């Protein structure tokens, strides 16, 4: 596999109906990169959580895109999520409730807990009116 | 895609999940669970569940709360290692009856 084929980019409208599109495309790319099913499971969870966040918060009018990039460099997968919606840092909105009994927990924040746990590095940046989330995970 | 199979015996209900419990299918499980609330105990079998995201966890959490509030028994069984890991990371495993 040459270097070119280790980098994928795709985009689509940030609406709920397109969540399966982003998951299916991710799975297709990760299969091409020969990522193991175990790592694909974790990466798909991260993608689902990040895409759901963007679809839910970035564009109140439902009129913007999400661009995703997937790359494999030195046994490390990088997922990049870009949107041009309102500034929103999902990493700041995490409320860790893991020590609370289940009956006292509310239902938010679970997605970001899973995403953080499955990543080796997770960053948010706001650059030129874009939200950019970068997720990195070593896979081999 | 998520498939939910039900088996009733008296007031006990066995549910067998297969496929994916995610943003797209969570609502489907929630509706089934709501319809079954008249039963007194539940076992949810995860043997054929390949994937669960936080959307799925939220449905399990909501159902657990309802069971607890009405003194009903809830047991989760036969999770694969990855699904179990999701429950562990979320901090659910210490509170739920997972067998």
Summarize the structure.
Chain A is of the alpha+beta class.
Write up this protein.
The complex is a heterodimer of chains A (140) and B (99). Chain A has 140 residues and is α+β, with helices and mostly antiparallel strands. Chain A has helices at 19-32, 37-57, 110-118; strands at 7-13, 65-73, 76-83, 121-127, 130-138. In chain A, strands 1-2-3-5-4 form a five-stranded antiparallel beta sheet, with helices on one face. In chain A, a hairpin with a 2-residue loop joins β2 and β3 (76-83). The longest helix of chain A has 21 residues, at 37-57. The two termini of chain A are 17 Å apart. The mean pLDDT of chain A is 90. Chain B is of the alpha/beta class. Chain B is built from three helices and five strands, in the order ββαβαβαβ. Chain B has helices spanning 26-35, 54-69, 81-89, and strands at 2-9, 12-21, 41-52, 73-77, 97-98. A five-stranded mixed beta sheet of chain B has the order 1-2-3-4-5. The interface between A and B is medium-sized, with 25 and 24 residues.
SSE topology sketch:
The complex is a heterodimer of chains A (140) and B (99).
Chain A: E1 7-13, H1 19-32, H2 37-57, E2 65-73, E3 76-83, H3 110-118, E4 121-127, E5 130-138
Chain B: E1 2-9, E2 12-21, H1 26-35, E3 41-52, H2 54-69, E4 73-77, H3 81-89, E5 97-98
Parallel strand pairs in B: 2-3, 3-4, 4-5
Antiparallel strand pairs in B: 1-2
């Amino acid at each position: 596999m040459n270097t070119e084929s280790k980098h994928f980019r795709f985009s689509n409208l940030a609406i709920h109906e397109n969540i399966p599109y982003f998951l299916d495309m991710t799975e297709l790319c990760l299969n091409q990169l020969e990522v193991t099913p175990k790592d694909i499971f974790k990466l798909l969870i991260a993608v689902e959580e990040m895409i759901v966040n963007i679809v839910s918060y970035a564009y109140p009018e439902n009129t913007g895109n999400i661009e995703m990039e997937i790359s494999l460099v030195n046994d490390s997968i990088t997922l990049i999520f870009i949107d041009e919606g309102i500034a929103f840092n999902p990493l700041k909105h995490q409320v860790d409730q893991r020590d609370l009994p289940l009956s006292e927990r509310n239902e938010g924040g679970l997605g970001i807990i899973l995403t953080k746990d499955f990543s080796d590095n997770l960053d948010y940046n706001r650059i030129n009116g874009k939200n950019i989330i970068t997720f990195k995970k070593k896979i081999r | 895609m998520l498939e939910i199979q039900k088996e009733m015996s008296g007031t006990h209900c066995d549910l067998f999940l297969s496929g994916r419990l995610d943003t797209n299918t969570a609502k489907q499980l929630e509706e089934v669970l709501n319809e079954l609330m008249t039963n007194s105990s539940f076992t949810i079998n995860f043997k054929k569940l390949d994937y669960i995201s936080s959307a799925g966890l939220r449905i399990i959490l909501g159902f657990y709360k309802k069971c607890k509030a009405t003194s009903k028994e809830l047991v989760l069984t036969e999770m694969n290692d990855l699904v179990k890991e999701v429950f562990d990371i979320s901090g659910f495993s210490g509170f739920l009856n997972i067998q």
